[in-house]
Amino acid sequence: MNESLSRDGRQDRGSALILVLVLTVISALIVLPIMSYTMTVIRAGDVEIDKAQGIESAEGGFRVAIGDSQALYEGCGTAVIPSLLPDVTVTCEVVATAAMHPASEVPYTVAVVQADAQVPSALVTSDPYANPNTTAQPDAWLATPDYSYDPQANKIWLPELPTVVITDGDSTRTVMQPGTMDQLYTECDVLFPGTYDQPVILDGPTYFVSGVYYFKEPVTVTGGADVVVGDGAAGGCTTDFEASANVADIPDPINRSGLGGTLIFGGNGRLVVDGNSGGDIRLVINQRYVGADEQSIAASEGVSIISVNGDLAADLDVAGVIQVPRSRVDDPNDDNAAAGHADDDAYAVASGYTPSVLTPKPTQPAAPTNVHATAYRLTGGSSATNGRATITWDEPNNNGSLITSYVVSSDTTSQTCTTSASSPSVPIPTPTTPLTAIRRACTVLGLSSGGSTSYRFRVVAVNAIGSSPNSGWSAETVTPRSTPLRSIVLTAPAVPAFDGAPIQYSDGMVVQWTAPPTSPHNTTHGYTPINYFEVVASLTSGGAVVSSCKGWWNETGCRLTNLTAGTNYFVQMRAVNLVGNGTYSAWSGPHQYNPGAAGLAPGVADSVATVRVPQPILEIALAAGAAEITIPGYIAVPQGRVSIDAGTTTTANKAVTMSGGLVAAQIVVGTLPDSFQVDFENPIAQKTVKITSTTSGDYTARGVGVVQINKSGSVGINSWFVQ
């Protein structure tokens, strides 16, 4: 029985095994395909997700690249552009470039337009302008004309002005908040675009926010300054973005525009780089770029420095010296092509600008200098009025118009003295002004000599244009005294000395002399300045006068006329001052008049006002310290001067680069720095680039785009695809 059960059990186990095998086969035929299908579907979904992620990453790399347009412009051409996205590599290739100006728009590199001025030979430049202007025809360059308002080949470029920024710039000057400037700097001054009516001094790290600046007074860059104007290739203590967000006082409006900066100078405005006091200097004006939508300041494109030209109501016109068209303000919305670009635009003076006064046009004199005073007294009379003071000074720059008089005044009395051809206190000899210079000394009358009143004096020079500023006060404060410690008594002049025998001419004899002293001649007596000299001639020693002549205070000779050939003459002379006539000299002679063929006596040359030499609109003086001066944009100061001098101490570690072109009335150079360039470089203003964005994840996606990008930051996408 047990054997029977054991056999049945084995049969049951065999049946179960068969059932398991059947079920296994069924599972293999049904379940496994279902599972395989399910896994395939899942895997297919992952692939699509990876593909979508790869495509988005590639597109993201492209978007990030064009998002920082300035970095893309500067960095394109390197092997890899930094990407903010993981597993994304972005490369950029420059396909094509476009310069700021086509060849037809490249003007003369350097030009001067004042009569007879020439570009200094020390300036190495590729295409200088041959100045045709002369004293006889100072406007020759205007006839063709040789200039244009837009840059053109074989023309001088005279840019128009952008619309004036009326915001008060002086009130917007501020500083970066601690910790917000570039990490290399511990301080940073910030200026915002606007109109600046007050002088500006820059002596430390300074940043000009990109835009247009209008200065009516000097901008001075001194030792220790590190100045960057506008965003661009050169970095400074901050950037446009950081300055606009992190200054101590954010102005409203900010007036930021484009990239780089344009400095406009009107009135007394000028740029002075003064390295004479020591300390290193860095000044970089980044190239000016303007966006297509910034029409009001479009004229500032490519211009670093520009002056406001002309007079208040006309072109600048100085006879025999210079003629420059007055500035206009660009208005691209109303240009009249038929009339020529800019001919219908408003003049600068009608648009808020003041023309520069730093031109050869004559102005009132500069202030006299080196003023000195000496106290005197007269003998007799009231001590209330017999005090005197003689004032002397140095001749100032007449600024292009002859000085016609000087006026001396004191700080404690209304008493004055004047030197001029018509002054009652100055007898008028022949010749008179303007043949000779006005005397630089006079004596103030009617002062107290009581010893209790002190006086200081100052001087004003006058010409046909107007009066100079006051000089400084006299170096001496004087107190006329009658007693005790008496002041020196005024006397008539001492005797002049003959200077050789008279010189024979066909129209007379010229008698020459040496002037007597005009300073105190001892401890008790002295002289006022000489007014004139007088020479008389007689047929005998002490006889009647038959001829006479006079010489102005600063002359050393005069001509005796109406003489008879072969006749002997005796001559004597004297000097005359405020007190009266000096003693005549002893008779000199006899001197026989023998005219022969000696010719006419030379006449007294007319005094001619020298051409006014104004302060330079751009002055670079680098006597001490290292210096880096970089001006990549155009410099247009056609009625002003440009002066460059590296000093005599050392020219090493000094670099001046003006690579955007230059026009001025005159260019004056002293010692040039070791590194020096004046030229018109035509920088790349637009790049066409191919951007490739590649992912390196589970699915490799590759995007390629072609983009046009301007230096100003504007971007245009030509094409874009991902695969």
Summarize the structure.
This protein is mainly beta and 723 residues long. The chain has four helices and 43 strands.
Describe this structure in words.
With 723 residues, this protein is mainly β. The chain has 4 helices and 43 strands. Strands 2, 7, 8, 10, 11, 13, 14, 16, 35, 37 and 39 form an 11-stranded parallel β-sheet that branches. The protein has an 8-stranded mixed β-sheet with strand order 5-6-9-12-15-36-38-40, with no helix packed on it. Strands 23-20-19-25-29 form a 5-stranded mixed β-sheet, with no helix packed on it. Strand 27 (503-505) and strand 28 form a beta hairpin. The protein is elongated, with a radius of gyration of 43 Å. The two termini are 81 Å apart.
Low-confidence stretches: 336-340, 422-435
Mean pLDDT: 83
- Percent strand equals 25-35%
Instruction: Tell me the number of strands.
Output: 43
- Terminal CA distance reads 81 Å
Fraction of residues in helix = 10-25%
Query: Total number of helical segments?
Result: 4
From the alpha-carbon coordinates, what is the Rg to the nearest angstrom?
A: 43 Å
Shape category: elongated
* Class from helix and strand fractions: mainly beta
Biggest sheet, open or closed, and with what strands and sense? 11 strands, parallel
Any key phrases for this structure?
mainly beta, 723 residues, 43 strands, 4 helices, 11-stranded parallel beta sheet, single chain, 8-stranded mixed beta sheet
Question: Secondary-structure blueprint of this entry?
Answer:
Elements: H1 2-67, H2 69-75, E1 88-99, E2 110-112, H3 140-143, E3 147-148, E4 156-157, E5 174-175, E6 189-191, E7 194-196, E8 200-202, E9 205-208, E10 211-215, E11 219-222, E12 226-229, H4 240-246, E13 261-265, E14 271-274, E15 281-285, E16 303-307, E17 316-318, E18 322-324, E19 369-377, E20 387-394, E21 403-410, E22 416-420, E23 441-447, E24 457-463, E25 488-491, E26 497-498, E27 503-505, E28 508-514, E29 525-527, E30 530-538, E31 545-552, E32 557-560, E33 568-577, E34 588-592, E35 618-621, E36 627-631, E37 634-645, E38 654-658, E39 662-669, E40 675-678, E41 684-695, E42 702-710, E43 715-722
Parallel strand pairs: 2-39, 3-4, 6-9, 7-10, 8-11, 9-12, 10-13, 11-14, 12-15, 13-16, 14-35, 15-36, 16-37, 19-25, 25-29, 35-37, 36-38, 37-39, 38-40
Antiparallel strand pairs: 1-41, 5-6, 17-18, 19-20, 20-23, 21-22, 21-24, 26-28, 27-28, 28-32, 30-31, 30-33, 33-34, 41-42, 42-43
